[in-house]
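Q: My labmate handed me this sequence with no annotations at all. I'd like to see what the chain might look like in three dimensions before we decide whether it's worth expressing. Could you predict it?
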Amino acid sequence: MENQFYKLSSGDDLFNSIYELSEENKSPSFVLSAVGDLSQCTFKCPQSEQPIIIRKNLEIISINGHFKREEVHLHISASDESCNVIGGHLL
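A: Here is what I predict for the chain of 91 residues:
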């Protein structure tokens, strides 16, 4: 097992950056942890057809899931400035 660390730049799209890693990766991988701030988060709640877009400063509380070539499946929890936590399937 190999550990890898990645630092994204301000303004990078979290989902697309992880998807690009999956394109480079030749074996199934998973996300153990992530920290950082988001200026926008798009996710889908369970049993909901419509995505939710939150456009405000959020802090990643947790992110987990797997990525492999052509498939990324991640769940995210983030909190706002009042410590309200939201989360779901990261889009």
